[in-house]
Amino acid sequence: MRFTVNGRELDADPRPGQCLRTLLREHAHFEVKKGCDAGDCGACSVLVDGEAVHSCVFPAVRAEGHAVTTVAGLGTGDDLHPLQQRFVDAAGFQCGFCTAGMIVTAATLTDDDLTDLPNRLKGNLCRCTGYRSVDDALRGVTNVEAPAPGPSCGRSLRAPAAARVVTGAEPYTFDTTVAGALHVAVLGSPHAHARIVSIDTTAAEALPGVHAVLCHRDAPAVAYSTARHEHRDDDPDDTVLFDRILRHHGQRVAAVVAETPALAQEGCRLLAVEYEVLPYVLDPDEARRPGAPLLHADKGPENRIADPSRNLVAELHGEVGDVDAGVAAAAAVVRGRWQTQRVQHTHLETHGAIGWIDGSGDLATGGRLVIRSSTQVPFLVRDELCHIFGLDRDRVRVFAARVGGGFGAKQEMLAEDVVAAAVLRTGRPVQWEFTRTDQLTVAPCRHPMRVDVTVAAGADGVLTALAIDVLSDAGAYGNHSAGVMFHGCGESVEVYRCPNKRVDAQAVYTNNRPSGAFRGYGLGQIVFAIESAMDELAVELGMAPYELRRRNVVVPGDDLVGAHPEGGDLIFGSYGLDQCLDLVQDAMRRGGAGEPAGPQWRVGEGMALAMIASNPPGGHVADTSVELLRDGTYLARVGTAEFGNGTTTVHTQVAATELATHPDRIRIRQSDTDVTTHDTGAYGSSGTVVAAKALLAAARELRRRMVKLAGQITGTDPDDAVPEADGVRAGGRLVSPGELLDAAGGTLRAEGSHGGLPRSLSFNVQAFRVAVDVRTGELRILQSVQAADAGVVVNPEQCRGQVEGGAAQAIGVALYEELVTDDTGRVVTDALRNYHIPQYADLPRTEVYFADTYDALGPMGAKSMSEAPFNPVAPALANAVRRAIGIRPHELPLSRDRIWRLLQ
Fold it and tell me: Around 508, how many Cα atoms within 13 Å sit in the side-chain half-sphere?
């Protein structure tokens, strides 16, 4: 058939049943994204004769004779469409994966449609921004500054990739063509717990186009964890590539590698597997009792599991002071049990990887295994692949293009191991891209937790006891469960000054799908419980919730105490919690939207706070370099991935400020094991406080060498030399980059590293004003306010977006989102339309305020602010509901039906 794409005629022969999205991408229109393939997210939106459609559900044959326009047809990087320019000017994106589709849909809107955006944009989802910046873009609001002379830090400059993102030219993982690539499909377990008795691959292997079938017979005898940390022994080695014992629905049974995805799927259907079904356990409380089915009884001490005979992945117990005495001495005591649900990250770019052997095409003759992955941790993935397959580091390269969202999910190795095995088996390039159903049913989720809290205080509101008892559902594998448990029980308890504290926590194996890293890393669940209990304590005491917090939060000079006193690597590099409390309370006093009319509505205000370490414990390493080029630009090499966290923008501004140059003269090469020596990865909010600090050290050293050379060239004192955008001014003249390079022997490059220690603390305070319909349980957010202590804010607009996005994701988790399982552990929430992430219509505009602090540890006074905004949101909402209806919620999400049941 024949049709036009962006004004150019295209001849194509679509397969029966093929959708327009895949046809366009097969012709290298990678600006058309895959987010769901079900018409739910809008990332694939294109225009057909000027009408916006979801190309993933639009039959390709219907395009015959019609004009198709993608975002690339609206404008180019050199000649942006006015709407694309508005998205640049408003900073209307973060990871940017949804942006192409969002702009295409928005291109059909008229001025009259601006009054109905909740309806007009209901088919386009954004997981990152919270939609405020998208709304600003549609209304022509400019949020970024034009580049100008002077320091870059502290200014809202546009992201370096902005023009590429809004035109669809910025490549993500699968936005490339690898000639001859084979495709992987995986057969998942139909049982919660089973042993493979036999597997017959004969029919699948005989299918024309199938190149390999991989199963437990092909798996290296190497145990590992899908979780990735700087120290690999932080996580239990309880996983193998393909296991004969299947411990959850959907676990890999076998993988078929074939010429097309359809052939690979057909190969899976031809596999004949006999299973021995085993007893299973889904409740973590039952799982730790004597007689429960054991998931990892075959594991020994070398696997680093706390107690396989009790299904315990990890446990923590500690007490400081005497909690029982503190309770006995109190004027008010609150006890309660809170429960959080299983939720998915829902990054719009799914997990996946492409692999090949470069060079000679054979590892034995000098080739290298190359993996292009949607990962936050390319170096850690590289190292673990070497561990699994017995390869030297110099034989493996892992890199990431721009990553379409992560939220902790891509601190896992979920596809790279299978892709590597398939490449090593076939010698061919291989790719595997998760479906949205894979994400919802198999990929790790946030840990569901049951949290018991006891909190007590004297009549003056000063705490006398604080105790928590945490039960965390690890699922079938222990990836991240120990770290999530320890971290969640840390800053949530340490933020309060109290002489008597006790922490008991266990992470327990069950036959549910695995849990993993999620924004907040355990703090969101436990802060929900503690802050709810603190609010109830304020009610019991008749004290304002802000005042109760002020009387009990830690301040500089206080010890940080959780289950045990915190080590010396966590310190107050700055302190803005007091300012955050004042900023939020003042904003709430000013008020927000009016109350809805009618006697059925009850209005309440709630607040909560959270503290988080600026980066993970135990060290977080970044090696960087900066090099002066002859044209006066600089090449910065960093290992950190960009996935909407904005680190590329921060790195650019930090380097430009130190080198006294324009931001557009800083070029960043990143997230590639070939680029620098090591980088632990983009997790734990480390992109600014670790990687940017390392880059600042490199830039500072390069600046020192440049001024020294300029002094030598001009015969003047280097202390009097001043770097400028076009060189170094010394001895009354400008020394050019070329002169500096010649004097340096042709290369001028400096390295900088940072090990992530010591660590500082960030603070966030969130408040809501809500209205609840007591007849139906409907909840409306009338005002949302968050104040953040981020130190010196390197890019205010970008940091504001991080706070808004974190609050938006947390609102979704607090009100709507839940992965529902049946009584066998199978996830039934297997389509995006049934998993309610917030749409444009669902979210308020959160007011964002920043404390005025300068952090002694961070680069140029900055602190991290990616995970932190998420943590206080759910308890603040729950507390507002409590104040509105007089009944305390104890369970998430705060869905309409749950609130209605509370009211009965």
Answer: 24
